[in-house]
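User: Hi! I'm working on a homework problem where we have to compare a predicted structure to a textbook description. Could you give me the structure for the chain below?
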Amino acid sequence: MNIAYEMRTTMASIAVVIATAGRPGAARDIITTLEDSRIPDFIGFLSAPDDSDVPDMPIPEKWTVCTGARGASSQRNKALDMIPETVSYVFFFDDDSVPRHDYISSMLDVLGSTPEAVAATGRVVLDGAAVGTEFTLEQCERALVESLLPPTSVTSRPVALTDSLYGCNFCIRWKATHDLRFDEDLPLYSWLEDLDYAKRALSRGQLLRVDSAVTAHRGSSTGGRTSHRRFGYSQIANPLHLRKKRSLTVAQTAREMMRPSLKNLALALVPSARFASRRSRLAGNLLAAGHAMVGRAHPSKMLNIKDGDIRDVELRS
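Assistant: Happy to help. Predicted structure tokens:
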């Protein structure tokens, strides 16, 4: 059943979209973080599969909760369908992201002076998803405070062109991208949906990386969005699907498949219960590879995988 709570009307030109599932605590934290930030007036959309995923807290008036869709792509699209024409910019954050207090204002400063840019992603100073460690909210907040100190290196550019957007934090110019949607053929966690969206947005204008728009990514392993075996299937099937769409080059497709599958293989050979998840992912990799050999691989087939091991998945490569 599709449920959408009454949307609060506002003249705000900024919208924030957060897709969440199984992590009401994380959703509560990022809503609180955004409410405490130095942000111009905005409207927020929290998109969740059902009411159990919504934090048990008084939802601020500027936020709209929409339920009924499951999967990062579907949930984001449900929120995008509700955004009014008066909005100029739409910001996307993962529910376990912790944007610095000036993230949105910094991004607006850059995009406002760069009309040829249609989207931008920020700088991640702490990324639990990348290093395989779940950071606490306090650790992230400390890293954000430290990021305010003068840089010790001058090798990075404050603003640079890029060809990708990191799903845990990015912004789009709504007028230029209002008809773009995330690929719902990538179910559940929608692995690589940000890469696919970036490829299509790039045809509309420039993509930027903005160093002054800073966030931390907790890399929360809770949520149970998928199983390790299903995720392993996505690691092969999703890049192949994006290659067919020409969102990936041949080289990118090979890299996106080989990097996680080789890591799964190496760790699966370690005789330790710690790496049982890697053996499950490898099984998913092999199943998808078998389907690909006979032309039957598709991201949606991961939904048919019967897997009793449905513990929370970190969803890191």
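For your comparison, note the following. Residues 25 and 55 are 6 Å apart (CA to CA). The first strand starts at residue 3 and ends at 4. Good luck with the assignment!
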